[in-house]
Amino acid sequence: MAEAKQIDSLWLGADIVTMRDGHYNLIADGALAVDNGELIWVGPRSELPDFAPRTQQQFDGGIITPGLVDCHTHLVFGGDRSQEFEQRLNGVSYAEIAAQGGGILSTVRATRAASQQELVASARWRLNRLLAEGVTTVEIKSGYGLDETSELTMLRAIRELAETVPADVLSTCLAAHGFPPEFKENPQGWIDIICNRLLPQVKAEGLADAVDAFCEHLAFSPEQVSAVFDQAKALGMPVKLHAEQLSALGGATLAAEYGALSADHLEYATEADAQAMAQHGTVAVLLPGAFYLLRETQRPPVDLFRKHGVPMALASDANPGTSPALSLRLMLNMGCTLFGMTPEEALAGVTLWGAKALGLQHSHGSLEVGKVANFVHWPLARPAELIYWLGGELPCQVIYRGEAQ
């Protein structure tokens, strides 16, 4: 008789929502076997092989989902913009706020003034709110320093943060987020610094996993984005793009043609954009928090993405100006109620497709053999309840790399 295989842990007593291929693919009364932080068996408890686990967890019903993936955030920044939020609601226009020195430049000033330690501490507080709701993988962008020193400090803060939390934290260089005030009359000068000095240093120090830019009439033109992307590609760094948030500039198609991991926002994306994204495997990252706070009316073309088979991710876009969102679960609900996604599409958007938007689909985002053992137990009857309940911190048990948190 064969001896039972020794493994680290076994997790039983709940239905498993695998999210394989972006669908629930629910396994009733399932079992998860974990060894060395990886899933080595996933299936019905009735078919469980003979394992000898060092620890065993028996849940009393509920569901287990993959750990949630927040694939687009700006969690590292100085200060906040709650005062401007209040001003806008009292009738002060964005232009008036900007004239007073507000808007993104107020965050730039506060971020430049903050030390790396201060940036890490404030970002950790925000990140902990996301982790408490089942997030086990998160992407964080720079982009509020807008000078060489401050952008590098932000990226180093992200790397330091990654070492102090039970989550997989990816870093994105978004130096092309806006033009520094010092380069208002010389935008090409900032592009040259990004391409010739900043990105090579970021690459040399291993400070970023990808390069992002903001393609919009009030930010960077497609031609300027191309220059940044050309340098990123020359350095072997993946790219992604804020595109089509406020107008149709063809940024999503541009991103797809560069093989971008994702194009994000996309309220004004066209069918041609959807076709290009489908052709090149670029994920559509939808950000309902900013749509909601800015009270936009142009919804992203969810039907076109469905028609052409473009994977749709959802993310918090947590940032100080347009989406001060600290709940990815609330974004699930907004993706359904504001954008017309189904609950299954929304959950896929913060698991498998969120992972794909980070280039992690082969290791994260679904409960399959060979993937990292990041998963969450929820005392819920069905997956749709994650989307259904508004607000409140649902109790959950987070398992990161096979270890209960």
Mean pLDDT: 96
User: Counting H and I runs of at least 4 residues, what is the number of helices?
Assistant: 15
Number of strands: 16
End-to-end Cα distance, whole Å, is 37 Å
Rg over C-alpha atoms, rounded to the nearest angstrom: 21 Å
Question: What would you say this structure looks like, in words?
Answer:
By secondary structure, the chain is α/β, with parallel strands linked by helices. The protein is built from 15 helices and 16 strands. It has helices at about 80-90, 95-100, 105-115, 115-130, 150-160, 185-205, 220-235, 250-255, 270-280, 290-295, 300-310, 330-335, 345-350, 350-355, 385-390; strands at about 5-15, 25-35, 40-45, 50-60, 65, 70, 135-140, 170-175, 210-215, 240-245, 260-265, 285, 310-315, 375-380, 395-400, 405. Strands 1, 2, 3, 4, 5, 14, 15 and 16 form an 8-stranded mixed sheet that branches. β15 (about 395-400) and β16 (about 405) form a beta hairpin. α4 (about 115-130) packs across α5 (about 150-160), α5 (about 150-160) runs parallel beside α6 (about 185-205) and α12 (about 330-335) crosses α13 (about 345-350). The longest helix has 19 residues, at about 185-205. The protein is globular. The two termini are about 35 Å apart. The model has no long low-confidence stretch (mean pLDDT about 95).
Topology:
Layout: E1 5-17, E2 26-35, E3 38-44, E4 51-58, E5 63-66, E6 68-70, H1 82-89, H2 94-99, H3 104-113, H4 116-131, E7 135-141, H5 148-162, E8 168-176, H6 187-205, E9 210-215, H7 222-234, E10 240-243, H8 251-257, E11 262-265, H9 271-280, E12 283-286, H10 288-293, H11 302-308, E13 312-314, H12 328-337, H13 343-349, H14 352-356, E14 375-378, H15 384-388, E15 397-400, E16 403-404
Parallel strand pairs: 1-4, 1-5, 6-7, 7-8, 8-9, 9-10, 10-11, 11-12, 12-13
Antiparallel strand pairs: 1-2, 2-3, 5-14, 14-15, 15-16
Helix pairs in contact: 4-5, 5-6, 6-7, 8-9, 12-13
